[in-house]
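JOB MANIFEST
job_type = single_chain_structure
chain_count = 1
residues = 448
[input]
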Amino acid sequence: MANSSRPNILFFGIDSLRRDHMSGYGYPRLTSPHLDKLAAGGVLFEDAFSPHIPTTPGYANMLTGLDVFGTDRVSLREPGPIMDEVATLPEILKAAGYVCESIGLDDRLCKGFDQYHGFAGGWGGWDSRPLRKAEELNAVALPILERLAAGDEPWLLFLRHMDPHSPYLPPEPFDRMFYQGDECAPGNDSMQPVWDFKPFAEYFKSWMPPGITDKDWVIAQYDGEIAYMDVCIAQLLTKLERLGVAEDTLIVITADHGETLYDHGCWFDHHSMYDPTLVVPLIWNWPGHLPEGKRVRGMCTLYDIVPSLLDLIGLETPHRFDGKNLWELMRGERVANYNEIFITECTWMRKHGVRTQEWKYIEALEPDFHGFPPRELYNLIKDPEENRNVIDQEPEIADALQKRMQAYIAKRESETGRPHPILRWELGLGLSIGGVAQAQKLQAKDEE
């Protein structure tokens, strides 16, 4: 056990995990029993959002406590590490005597770790199935936990899981856990719209069964990925207990963003600003220091995590944060951390907008390859799945939200002395992804 009054921190930043496919958040399939048990012994936030899509800004928000203006990172393809003047969580903790290591990140996604460890999992096609991403991560993580637990310093270990990120190809029995039908049965045309979406069709064909007709198979694989990862995470939690450090370890579970499945024509990916992409889990567990079985309502964001973590472990810092304290929300001192959140997406689309409890306004900065309208407005109370664009029926509300968005942008530009980071990008309509090999090359290029 570390010789310190401060806890160790095991931080799971899971790639592409939407909270509404976790059983602990009400999903009818039992996808996450071990994470549900962890939440039952701690605090679960029901309305956490990743406001800035995709991965690169998501991890920047998660590990700095700053919004997209504070980090100046808005796109997947941001070059180089985050700015020197931005303090990251590992940098702050290292100054307080922590040893900080990560698995699955690199210094482009978050600078400041003492060591960066890779693992073999991530990509693969139909012919190389199954993918054992979480097991390969554990093979790296378990000996690191042993080494850290034997040391005298408190530690932060950050784990970027690549389940359930596509390709969704979990091992047995998870591949058939939630599906027992015939994915290639004739007469089912639910996959036809997916094949008709040419920018991604080649990629999907490279890892889905030849001749697949049933979209429910794909969704079941995503759910199977969650269940598989959940079991592998349980192995890490058991390791903490066997090492005798479970009581001295704060655990944080969240995701960089969610995932669209068969939603809105954004097939099996994480672009767009509809809620399946924005919703993320947020679970905290620290025995004896946090309530057990506490579920907290009210909008909060990824950039609330760092200031809340530092407050929880009693570490003061001169750095300022854009996020708000989650424990004030937990104690009922306010009903939500935000009445509205500014949202952006700069992956395969370039858009920004505003989400409130009742409304979502989306504004395109250039045409997208789906041909979606330049302005969208959804009533989230009457239409929580965002199927009815009411921009023409409610123009006054759309204009009011647009003005509030513009005022927020102007305020943050003035405070940071930098322009809105999304303005330096132009994506164009000629975007597409080939097979798994090309996806891997694009990911490698993005991480240079």
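[summary]
The CA atoms of residues 6 and 313 lie 6 Å apart.
The two ends are 37 Å apart (CA to CA).
exit_status = 0
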